Amino acid sequence: MADTEVCSVVSDFIDFLNASPTAFHAVDEAKKRLQKVGYEQVVEREDWKLEAGKRYFLTRNHSTIVAFAIVFYPLIFCMLKYVVGNGFHIVGAHTDSPCLKLKPVSEVKRAGYLEVGVQTYGGGLWHTWFDRDLTVAGRAMIREEKGGSVSYSHRLVRIEEPIMRVPTLASHLDRGVNDGFKVNTQSHLLPVLATSVKVELNKEFAENGLAEKTTNKSRHHAFLLQMIANKLRCQPDQICDFELQACDTQPSIVANAAKEFIFPEGLTIFAYLALIDATSSDNDLENESGVRMVALFDHEEVGSNSAEGAGSLAMLDALSRITYSFTSASKMLAKAIQRSFLVSADMAHALHPNYMDKHEESHQPKLHRGLVIKHNANQRYATNAVTSFIFREIAVKHNLPIQDFVVRNDMPCGSTISPILASGVGICTVDVGAPQLSMHSIREMCAVDDVKHSYEHFKAFFHKFSQLDTEISVDT
């Protein structure tokens, strides 16, 4: 890939990240990009009328999204490449990241400060959230009245400017802070929104009478509600409820002396860029016999046990409805699943130069060295010899670097959506990830080269898996 193409992929990736401060925004950005290249939306609560040769996507809770391309390629005698029962070729990832989410009652007043009550989401490195320029983003439910009728709509909201901060305690008041900074997530992590004096003197706030309307009746600071309402172009009392989280206002960027690293918040969006480019024209699909799919799930960081998580029926529902759009034979779904392959694409722990003892000598993934195949004998990752070989062979055929990782025996191992989907759906799975540092920090870190490698590898998977699969024999 030429340098200009590399820059284009990296730029596109950063644009995606900067448009996606929350899972809701990530889905919205993916939706816009899919529609731009001809994908049509289907709705789970309605009937589907799918056609071979078309591209579709669905969303669930607007925080999970599944996109798929059903191949139609005219051959001699008007045969179709796609036949019911053929497999699904899937890259799966997630939309969420560890963060601070606003509590159902977020109004906190202490010592003359207006603070925002938050709850920790996922296993974040919470000390990295101190002294950052924070804002809020998410979704709100809005009540609208037109012609005497009332309706309620889901609306995305994002305040771009920094509006709050979690301040650290001065070292003079905590002499042992450098011996070990321990965060009490209940009492230390509350962002400061404003001081009571300034809010009471705020002209717009006072003229709107918000203090009288909401001070003792609202679950949230009236000042915060007014800022959200201004963004949504509605009145504060039209906001029925919301799901908001604290976000860093510093954008994802290419940085460092050699411009070799990316400093983002959240890094699991490579797959959509590869799917879009692997299905944007009929020529891209000319050798495809299956259904190409990308699925991004919410709530991976907290176990995936939700209606829109990988632990739900979302994946199986999608596979079922696609299959049954072309046949009523129930056996075809089981056949299709057994012919399917899932690439679980999360991230991987790169070797840290200051903590080299955290990796064993034979498994030290490095930045710039390509995707990492993740293994775990206890099935924290779902990789096996067959699935590892398939992904590694794709790398060999395309001259792509590939690495391996297994956690040390004396350390706990994280997990991904892969064992959940492998056991719940029964689909062959490989766990992979781009190497990164600062995982679960508010500012993560990966290499520019690995964005390119990830994009190329996923795109190669979509283009080459059908042929490679015909060459492999296991349960025969």
From TrEMBL:
Pfam families: Peptidase_M18. Gene3D superfamilies: Aminopeptidase i, Domain 2, Zn peptidases. Its cofactor is Zn(2+). GO terms for molecular function: aminopeptidase activity; metallopeptidase activity; zinc ion binding. Keywords: Aminopeptidase, Hydrolase, Membrane, Metal-binding, Metalloprotease, Protease, Transmembrane, Transmembrane helix, Zinc. GO terms for biological process: proteolysis. InterPro entries: Peptidase_M18, Peptidase_M18_dom2. The keyword Protease applies. The keyword Protease applies. One of its GO terms (cellular component) is cytoplasm. Belongs to the peptidase M18 family. PANTHER family: ASPARTYL AMINOPEPTIDASE, ASPARTYL AMINOPEPTIDASE-RELATED. This is Aspartyl aminopeptidase. It comes from Gossypium barbadense.
